[in-house]
Recover the amino acids of this structure.
């Protein structure tokens, strides 16, 4: 049987990670892989997570199956984190939230629900988007359409072209949007853009599906949720997939949530049952550990304050690396302007250099960056910043 399987093309990021691991040069720098690293280059367990784990060790008295929708307390707390504790949607009975395995599992459950509701719906994704959006959601059955997003020449969102395309999206289609900290470009929609998209969605009748995998890493927990909070206020239907991988550092615990906003409480009941039936078909029930930790943190004033302080440290560290990188490479002899990096949000930005320059950085300087020139700003630290900026300037200047 298996002889009929064809080899699968390797994921370029995994290939880059393997090449980085095999590189023996001491000064090597990995700006490829998409995880947060602190100033010592580690991806630590947050202290608030460690405290929650100690508490969980004491409190946990069963490993029996959870419900299909996961931990009810977690779902409530996630709704409040996403929408804000005072958002009227929380008391509306139109909201359904299920714990799901990471942002990826959440996106997939949402995609499957849409497919059941409307098998002909197309999914509109920005160019570019997180590359895994396409296989992850496309294999749920979506035909994928594209809208223009990032303009590589201006290093910013091509708002006019984006809105022009969104103005042609048919009713009932689904438009995928990044809640904040756009991966891979770092170019985020501003509140006025979100408002404009909501206007078009209302007029055209398409349904926004917001992927928020970095809440708190851009401008802060509340500002990063502007788009989804406003849309929950204004639109009849909405989907929101969230991830706790980055903002709680729970990458391997597979902790996320899918929220579906229905037009009425009656529809929400059906959406809830359908979502659970989909989860049951795919994985039965989500892994418990990460969500229990998040519940303990968000449900305890002190732990929550600790977590928010740690998250703020993460956010500010990334921001300061953006400034140091921009300032360190802007005075290059080639006259290239990298100011966009300082202005953008989240873990990623495009460097915007040529593939020859990218290869030289890897071969001559042991600096690993993915082919799109997306850099993970969190891979930069006080030990490697000078070497990094000197190397980039050398490659630009010669
Ligand atoms: C935009 C975006 N969405 C979703 C995810 C998936 O997150 P998770 O690791 O929680 O599945 C990622 C992870 O890198 C991401 O960048």
């Amino acid at each position: 049987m298996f002889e009929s399987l064809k080899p699968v093309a390797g994921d370029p990021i995994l290939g880059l990670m393997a090449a980085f691991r095999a590189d023996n040069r001491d000064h090597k720098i990995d700006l490829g892989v998409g995880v947060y690293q602190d100033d010592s280059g580690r991806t630590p367990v947050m202290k608030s997570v460690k405290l929650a784990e100690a508490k969980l060790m004491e409190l946990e008295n069963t490993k029996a199956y959870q419900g299909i929708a996961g931990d009810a307390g977690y779902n409530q707390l996630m709704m409040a984190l996403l929408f804000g504790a005072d958002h009227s949607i929380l008391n509306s009975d139109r909201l359904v939230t299920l714990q799901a395995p990471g942002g990826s599992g959440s996106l997939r459950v949402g995609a499957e629900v849409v497919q059941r509701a409307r098998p002909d719906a197309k999914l509109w994704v920005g160019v570019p988007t997180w590359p895994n959006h396409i296989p992850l959601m496309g294999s749920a059955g979506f035909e994928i359409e594209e809208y223009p997003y990032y303009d590589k020449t201006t290093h910013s969102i091509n708002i006019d072209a984006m809105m022009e395309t969104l103005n042609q999206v048919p009713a009932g289609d689904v438009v995928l949007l990044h809640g904040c900290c756009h991966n891979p470009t770092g170019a985020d929609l501003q509140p006025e853009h979100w408002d404009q998209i909501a206007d078009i969605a209302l007029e055209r009748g398409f349904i926004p599906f917001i992927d928020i995998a970095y809440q708190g890493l851009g401008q802060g927990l509340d500002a990063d949720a502007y788009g989804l909070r406003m849309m929950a206020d204004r639109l009849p239907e909405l989907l929101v997939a969230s991830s706790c991988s980055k903002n709680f550092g729970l990458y391997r615990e597979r902790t996320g949530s899918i929220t579906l906003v229905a037009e009425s409480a009656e529809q929400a009941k059906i959406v809830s049952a359908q979502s659970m039936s989909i989860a049951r078909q795919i994985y039965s029930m989500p892994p418990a550990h990460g969500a229990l930790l998040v519940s303990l943190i968000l449900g305890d004033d002190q732990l929550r304050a600790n977590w928010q302080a740690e998250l703020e440290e993460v956010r500010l560290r990334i921001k300061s690396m953006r400034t140091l990188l921009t300032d360190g490479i802007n005075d290059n002899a080639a006259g290239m302007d990298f100011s966009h990096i300082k202005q953008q949000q989240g873990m990623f930005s495009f460097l915007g250099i040529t593939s020859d320059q990218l290869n030289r950085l890897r071969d001559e300087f042991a600096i690993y960056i993915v082919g799109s020139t997306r850099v993970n700003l969190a891979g930069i630290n006080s030990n490697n910043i000078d070497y990094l900026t000197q190397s980039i300037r050398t490659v630009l200047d010669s």
User: Anything to note?
Assistant: Residues 2-45+303-397 form a domain with the Aspartate Aminotransferase, domain 1 fold (CATH 3.90.1150.10). The chain has two domains: 2-45+303-397, 65-299. The pocket of pyridoxal-5'-phosphate is lined by residues 34, 102-104, 130, 178, 183, 211, 213, 243, 245, 256 (CB under 6 Å).
